[in-house]
Prior knowledge:
Low-confidence stretches: none
Structural class: alpha+beta
Number of strands: 16
Distance between the termini: 42 Å
Shape: globular
Strand order of the largest sheet: 8-9-10-11-14-15
Amino acid sequence: MGILKVAALQLALGGSADENIAAISALVREAAAKGATVILPPELFEGPYFCRTETLEPFAAARPATDHPSVKAMQALAAGLKVHIPTSFFEKDGQHHYNSLAMIDDAGRIAGVYRKSHIPDGPGYEEKFYFRPGNTGFKVWPTPQATLGVGICWDQWYPETARSMMLMGADILMFPTAIGDEPEAEALDTSRLWRRAMIGHAVSNVVPVVAANRIGTEGGQTFYGHSFICDERGDMLAEFGAGETGVLVAELDLERVRRNRAAFGFFRDRRPELYGRLVEDV
């Protein structure tokens, strides 16, 4: 375990599926040309964020992982470029629908699927209409260079998500997202909170964090970008604002991260016997 170069992609995704997949593919190639071997696109990048309202049409685009156009496109890229691509997609499994992520390895294989655990339900983010809560549990993904922990958007607000993946052996935490303004709370800008929550995960778990968000306005809802890569101290290594399109790339010294994590003692000093209240639904 040494130096790992990672990338986060940020762009507008209001076009057709073919246009969006092509735009993502171009940025994946750019990230790979810059040396990144793990490349994170935003959540549900195939099309506009359809969960703003409750309609029937989006269900027609759901597919199993092996048949989904986003997944198949990223598989071809991953195999050709020898990179890992955590790929968000709208999954259909029998009669069930999930907000899912296929971990695509550097041979273009699907290493497995994670289904989003925490499903939001509110103005502009009515995901419970479309998705069942994930039934996979949290997952981490061993690669030759590092073990990747990947949550999906709303998962990132929960410290339990980050800590669970860390206890499973994650070396890096990654969060593909689709988040922007709050339609019923015009004065609330969650972009600051969004980043602070993930930076908190970085600090309290001594782990680098990579977050990829979309930008642009879709149906009156504006997505605020602010994708970033921070180190295990929570210090920014690369970041975008609200309008940039492109690729963030950063090098992570995973040996240094491991030493710093051990030195802080956060995992040494845990008291699991005191934490039972966390899993009581009362």
